[in-house]
Amino acid sequence: MLVLDSSALFSMEQLPDEDFVCPPGVVDELRRHRDGRLDLWGDLLRISDCTAASVKTVEAAAKKSGDAGRLSPVDVTVLALALDVGGTILSDDYSIQNVAAILGIDYKGVGMASIKKVEKWNYKCVGCGKWFKEKSSECPICGSAMKGFRR
Fold this sequence. Notes:
Largest sheet: 4 strands, parallel
Number of strands: 7
Order of helices and strands: EHEHHHHEHEEEE
CATH architecture of the largest domain: 3-Layer(aba) Sandwich
Oligomer: single chain
Distance between the termini: 33 Å
Helix content: 25-40%
Number of domains: 2
């Protein structure tokens, strides 16, 4: 079973011949970007929700690796759905691939090469220079922007 994320669908010219599924948020992203393929694929897309337990598992892994601030809520559901169905994720999103590798979920790139190794992230304030394990929109100390760095 293949689990498709938005980047996979944006990169594909046709749907895969294998069994596939995507979470509802992926279809919502296609609609939001007015992707014309949605008009062609709409009824062919297999859509399924993920379990809350799998979402918690993904969130915990993403927090541990520093990817939590890099994943959208839809990205989390893609990963959680892959856990639920035991599927392979098709995605060009490196943070999705990174968390998939940590969780033992198979993944493949579509339009870009896949990651070669798991990365862990820390975040540094560009103002005061303090390091943090979790990403936030601004430094809690000085209010400056945060920048991600691989450990």
